Amino acid sequence: MLIAVDIGNTNIVLGFIEDEQVAATYRITTKSNHTSDEFGIMMLQFLQLKGFAPRDVHDVIITSVVPKVMHSFTAAIVKFLGITPMVVGPGIRTGMNIHIDDPRSLGADCLADCAGAYATYGGRTLVIDMGTATTYNYVDEHATITCGLITTGIRTAAEALTSMTAQLPEVEIRRPTSILAKDTKNAIQAGLYYDFLGGIERIITQFHREIPEDFQVVATGGLARILDTPLIDVIDPDLIFKGMLWIYRKNI
């Protein structure tokens, strides 16, 4: 089994890949003060939940946008699994071309998303990852990432709204039943949802206007499933793990 680890700003997501399929995924809150022992114990517990033992893990691959967590998490893998993980970054073959002004500025998570989209759905794909930030990256038919866009994630917008106001409460991020809200909680939920949805649809429309070829839209991330729009062709929650498997194959 291969364990793929995506260390993001909000969550660390582990994907257990068995027989080239994602068998299970688990989430850990990203905290820079977790020790390697804490991370290691959580990994062992997740393995046990699926009936796996440490000896069943033959390798680990990591993408990370949180450098502060990397040392302790990597140390946990070495200590508890006896494996030095592969880290997506400089020197790793990805099978992707990056044609932007500063290729090194592209996040490892975005790179893995794009690799997963190309490996699974082919080129001419707009890849949207809805996490702490919402990112858009375009992959052409030659496995080339040609452009991208970054904006606020819906949960980040919700946190900004409540932290910058005195009386607005925190709310669950979900799809509202109606935009005709009659109380504060539903008003915030509907406002966040439709503002976020409208922004996504407008950005996708603009990509279609400026890219002459037809393309498909693939979305991923924890909040992708709440959206209801015909402009997104595929929602793939395991996209990053498919990309990490693709990258892993290129390097073994």
From TrEMBL:
Keywords: ATP-binding, Coenzyme A biosynthesis, Cytoplasm, Kinase, Metal-binding, Nucleotide-binding, Potassium, Transferase. GO terms for cellular component: cytoplasm. Its cofactor is NH4(+); K(+). Transmembrane segments: none annotated. Pathway: Cofactor biosynthesis; coenzyme A biosynthesis; CoA from (R)-pantothenate: step 1/5. Substrate binds at G107, A108, D109, C110, T184. GO terms for molecular function: ATP binding; metal ion binding; pantothenate kinase activity. It is found in: Cytoplasm. InterPro entries: ATPase_NBD (IPR043129), Type_III_PanK (IPR004619). Gene3D superfamilies: 3.30.420.40. ATP binds at D6, I7, G8, N9, T10, N11, I12, V13, T132. The active site is at D109 (proton acceptor). Its main location: cytoplasm. K(+) binds at D129. The keyword ATP-binding applies. Its EC number is 2.7.1.33. One of its GO terms (biological process) is coenzyme A biosynthetic process. A monovalent cation. Ammonium or potassium. Pfam families: Pan_kinase. It catalyses: (R)-pantothenate + ATP = (R)-4'-phosphopantothenate + ADP + H(+). It comes from the Bacteria. Homodimer. NCBIfam families: baf, PRK13318.1-4, PRK13321.1. Belongs to the type III pantothenate kinase family. Catalyzes the phosphorylation of pantothenate (Pan), the first step in CoA biosynthesis. This is Type III pantothenate kinase.
